[in-house]
UniProtKB/TrEMBL annotation:
<keyword id="KW-1133">Transmembrane helix</keyword>
<dbReference type="GO" id="GO:0006651">
    <property type="term" value="P:diacylglycerol biosynthetic process"/>
</dbReference>
<dbReference type="GO" id="GO:0005789">
    <property type="term" value="C:endoplasmic reticulum membrane"/>
</dbReference>
<protein>
    <recommendedName>
        <fullName>Acyltransferase</fullName>
        <ecNumber>2.3.1.-</ecNumber>
    </recommendedName>
</protein>
<keyword id="KW-0812">Transmembrane</keyword>
<dbReference type="GO" id="GO:0004144">
    <property type="term" value="F:diacylglycerol O-acyltransferase activity"/>
</dbReference>
<comment type="similarity">
    <text>Belongs to the diacylglycerol acyltransferase family.</text>
</comment>
<keyword id="KW-0472">Membrane</keyword>
<dbReference type="GO" id="GO:0019432">
    <property type="term" value="P:triglyceride biosynthetic process"/>
</dbReference>
<keyword id="KW-0444">Lipid biosynthesis</keyword>
<feature type="transmembrane region" description="Helical">
    <location>
        <begin position="21"/>
        <end position="44"/>
    </location>
</feature>
<keyword id="KW-0012">Acyltransferase</keyword>
<dbReference type="InterPro" id="IPR007130">
    <property type="entry name" value="DAGAT"/>
</dbReference>
<keyword id="KW-0256">Endoplasmic reticulum</keyword>
<dbReference type="Pfam" id="PF03982">
    <property type="entry name" value="DAGAT"/>
</dbReference>
<keyword id="KW-0808">Transferase</keyword>
<keyword id="KW-0443">Lipid metabolism</keyword>
């Protein structure tokens, strides 16, 4: 395999962009297990008191993730996220105003491999979410599994991440006065297995939990499509029905996380590695769908709102795909 090395005369800004994305990739793929190992290793050293004190804090703070987390605005506004934004680059596109007196569920599509667009747009302030939608605070849902990792749980909560369970989302959506935008990668971990370049497969046909949640709290629904999300990594071909996909689906059902076999570029070379490609991400926030509060919706009411949401997402994609290099004959595939 021919290896294409990065030029040695790259400007400092490019190197800082690469460094910022490297720390983000490590945070997603390696920081959680590293924190778990550190917690137990400290128990057998003279620094054992750190783990003991943290365990006490963990017990006291156990319910914080399900009660809005503990966001630190200063950290979300660090310069490092500007470099990460510019690496791809990432852009947040507004199509309509969102009334800050309301609460919202933003359905993010597609999941991609590492949800880079969702993190950059809704966990950092680098793309201007607070300026585009004044009065709204965004919270990105993440697998509850990661909130069981010592130290790591505190790190992700500071970025505005909360567990992807009903209790955590409901806590924010029932807040009086509005101003909360709960961001859900609707396809979840299974959709990462379909995140191939040029693919527009959306896991939505049987995803109605977020629709019911919106109706129970009267939270307006907002479809969000992130153009370029699936272009950041190559993935080993895994069509449905193949042995590799059957293994991936089985492991996902057991562990709760998907294991896409992905690769892209390296740090100092462009041929192979787990650093994402420098491909633009354009995250388009659609028009809000007004939802009336209905604590006990019927199946028919759920299906009707789900169909409306699907149509709005499809329309959002069709209206903007031409601006971002998607062929005219390409449409979303709902499964």
């Amino acid at each position: 395999m021919n290896i294409q090395f990065a030029p040695t005369d790259l400007p400092l800004s490019r190197r800082l962009q690469t460094a910022s994305v490297l720390q983000w990739v490590f945070s997603f793929l390696g920081l959680a297990p590293s924190c778990i190992v550190l917690f137990f290793v400290l128990m057998f050293t003279r620094f054992w008191l750190i783990s003991v004190l943290y365990a006490c804090w963990w017990f006291i703070d156990w319910e914080t993730p399900s009660k809005g987390g503990n966001r630190v605005h200063f950290l979300s506004n660090l310069r490092v996220w500007d470099y990460m934004r510019d690496y791809f680059p990432v852009k947040l596109v507004k199509t309509a105003d969102l009334d800050p007196r309301q609460n919202y569920i933003l359905g993010f599509h597609p999941h991609g491999i590492l949800v880079a667009g969702a993190f950059t747009n809704f966990c950092t302030y680098a793309t201007g979410f607070r300026k585009l939608f004044p009065g709204l605070d965004s919270f990105l849902l993440m697998l509850p599994l990661w909130f069981r990792a010592p130290f790591f749980r505190d790190y992700i909560m500071m970025a505005g991440l909360i567990p992807s369970d009903k209790e955590s989302a409901s806590y924010l959506l029932r807040r009086q006065g509005g101003g909360n935008a709960v961001v859900i990668a609707v396809g979840g971990a299974p959709e990462a297995l379909d995140a191939h370049p040029g693919a527009f497969t959306i896991l939505l046909a049987n995803k109605k939990g977020f629709i019911k949640l919106a109706m129970e709290h009267g939270a307006h629904l907002v479809p969000v499509f992130s153009f370029g999300e699936n272009e950041l990594f190559d993935q080993v071909e895994n069509p449905r029905g193949t042995w590799i996909r059957l293994i991936q689906d089985k492991l996902q059902s057991i562990m709760g996380i998907s294991l896409p076999l992905f690769h892209a570029r390296g740090i100092f070379q462009y041929s192979y590695g787990i650093m994402p490609y420098r491909k633009p991400i354009n995250t388009v926030v659609g028009r809000p769908i007004r939802v009336e509060k209905n604590e006990k919706p019927t199946v028919e009411e759920l299906d009707a709102l789900h169909q409306l949401y699907t149509e709005e997402l499809s329309q959002l994609f069709e209206e903007h795909k031409g601006k971002y290099g998607v062929p005219e004959d390409q449409h979303l595939s709902f499964v």
